[in-house]
């Protein structure tokens, strides 16, 4: 069956805890640098360097998006950091998908690959990953992908 590829992006943005940690690192780095210049001891300088590296590390992963691509019978999920760096998250063959549902049960501990806000296009996708067993992910699905899953009778 030759189907056309479907591609969509779900923007998550930056988490509030991430923003707070990054701001705290910046403040502590500045305070440590001021203490170093006032006391001329090495401990505040090392603390400033540690907070600088922590700030840079947090800044490299501050904006998060997920790219979903359905092509040749597979759903490919890629994580995009800061709209530049990509990391392959998962490749799910369509025959491994057990069901796709609008009901999200947090007791099953799903992995969210979309914003947690309520929206029409949010679906819980249950699939068998082989070595890890049954996994549940929450995605913001494209209407064309939803139509495809309805044709394959996988939406409940």
How many angstroms separate the termini? 23 Å
- Helix-strand pattern, N to C? EHHEEEEEEEH
Number of helices: 3
Query: Percent of residues in helical segments?
Result: 25-40%
Low-confidence runs of at least 5 consecutive residues: none
Describe this structure in words.
With 156 residues, the protein is α+β, with helices and mostly antiparallel strands. The protein has helices spanning 16-39, 42-60, 143-151; strands at 6-13, 64-71, 74-81, 85-93, 97-101, 111-112, 122-128, 134-140. The chain starts with 5 loop residues before the first strand and ends in a 5-residue tail after the last helix. The mean pLDDT is 83.
Summarize the structure.
The protein is 33% helix and 35% strand. It has helices at 16-39, 42-60, 143-151; strands at residues 6-13, 64-71, 74-81, 85-93, 97-101, 111-112, 122-128, 134-140.
Task: Offer a few descriptive terms.
alpha+beta, 8 strands, four-stranded mixed sheet, 156 residues, elongated, four-stranded antiparallel sheet
């Amino acid at each position: 069956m030759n189907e056309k590829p479907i591609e969509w992006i779900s923007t998550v943005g930056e988490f509030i805890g991430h923003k707070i940690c990054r701001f705290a690192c910046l403040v502590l780095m500045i305070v440590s640098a001021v203490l170093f210049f006032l006391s001329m001891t090495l401990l505040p300088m090392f603390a400033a360097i540690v907070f600088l590296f922590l700030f840079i590390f947090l800044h490299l992963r501050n904006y998060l998006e997920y790219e979903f691509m359905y092509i040749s019978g597979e759903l490919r999920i890629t994580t995009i950091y800061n709209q530049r760096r990509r990391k392959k998250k998962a490749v799910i063959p369509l025959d491994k998908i057990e069901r796709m549902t609008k009901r999200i049960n947090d007791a099953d501990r799903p992995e969210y690959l979309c914003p947690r806000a309520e929206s029409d296009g949010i679906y819980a996708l249950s699939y068998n990953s082989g070595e890890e067993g049954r996994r549940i992910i929450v995605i913001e699905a494209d209407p064309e992908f939803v139509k495809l899953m309805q044709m394959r009778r996988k939406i409940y």
